[in-house]
Amino acid sequence: MTKKTLNNLFFLAGVACVVVMLLTFDISFRELWYHLCKAGYWLIPVIGVWVFIYGLNALAWRAIIKGNNAPLPHFMRIYKLTISGYALNYATPVGGLGGEPYRILELTKHMPKEQATSSVILYAMMHFFAHFWFWFSSIFIYVALVIIGDLPLNTTVAIALGGIALFCMAAFWLFQKGYKGGLVVNVMKFLAKIPGLKGWATRFTERHRESLENIDQQIAALHSQDKKAFYTSFFFEYMSRVVQSLEIMFMLLMFDIDCGGGIAGYTLVFLHSILILSFTTLCANLIGFLPMQLGVQEGGFMLSIPATIGHSVRAALSPQKLIAVGFYVSLICRVREILWILIGILLMKMWNKE
């Protein structure tokens, strides 16, 4: 099967997923249009901020490709593959892994397959690694807001924060092992123990052992030898989460939730937006096998906004109103996702020369 045929299959799969998502939308298109009109000009920064978020993602991936001593494609090529890859990730199930094979396929037009595979795997690892650090650092933001009297702290919250901290530290240990010793061979060994996959995994490992070991060596080399590339990639990927919090901040301001306004008020809104994003993405990634985390994202916003918003806002708005705000925020985010999925799918057919 040629690369062009595979690209067309990825494109058709993405289109089919978008059609299914539009046909299974939870509300009518008339009601959706009403809510979009209500959002008004706030839709511009909500949608536009993702130009910068994907730019940071592309810079993180570019640092990994450069540190992997692979031929470096033009930045706009990496930027395009970043958007298209995430479009497939959002639209397809299986834990959001639909975009990785597509990225490998496209990178092999610029570099050997082993380098393309290791670069994509390393970026996927960095993407999740930054996620865990974002969740971990959010614990300290919550505690800081507790200290200034903006958020409550009770036994349930303390247990939840402690559980998240332990979860993240366990993940850091696993990532450390993966970065030091490689990951691919160990994953194949794990698959070989699963009934139904044992025969395939064993044959695949035996047939491609040298290539798999070379990929693992490249993964380990980036972490141990090129610290600058590793931490540059981590910085850009972590900052993409921070910038993503602006999307939620814009929507909170749309509802006049400004914590009193001024520098102090807007700073509080931004910190609350980080906590809301952290809680929602944690829920979505724990149940990541659903396309676009259908239902999980909505529930995450409707729970996280009442739970992480400040005392002053909760005094002014009822719990029912805050839940309604959470639903509206999730609705706008869903529309933004569909729009960027469409952009990513269309980009798959642009600038596609080998």
In total, the number of strands is: 0
Portion of residues in helices? over 70%
| Overall average pLDDT | 79
Unreliable runs: 289-293
User: What is the succession of H and E elements?
Assistant: HHHHHHHHHHHHHHH
- Rounded Rg: 21 Å
Question: N-to-C terminal Cα separation, in Å?
Answer: 16 Å
Outline, from the CA principal axes? globular
Main sheet properties: none
- What is the strand content? under 5%
SS field, number of helical segments: 15
Structural class by helix and strand composition:
mainly alpha
Could you characterize what this model shows?
With 354 residues, the protein is mainly α. The protein is built from 15 helices and no strands. The chain has helices at residues 3-23, 29-39, 43-67, 75-91, 99-107, 113-147, 155-181, 184-191, 198-207, 209-225, 227-254, 262-286, 296-308, 311-316, 319-347. The model is unreliable at 289-293 (pLDDT under 50).
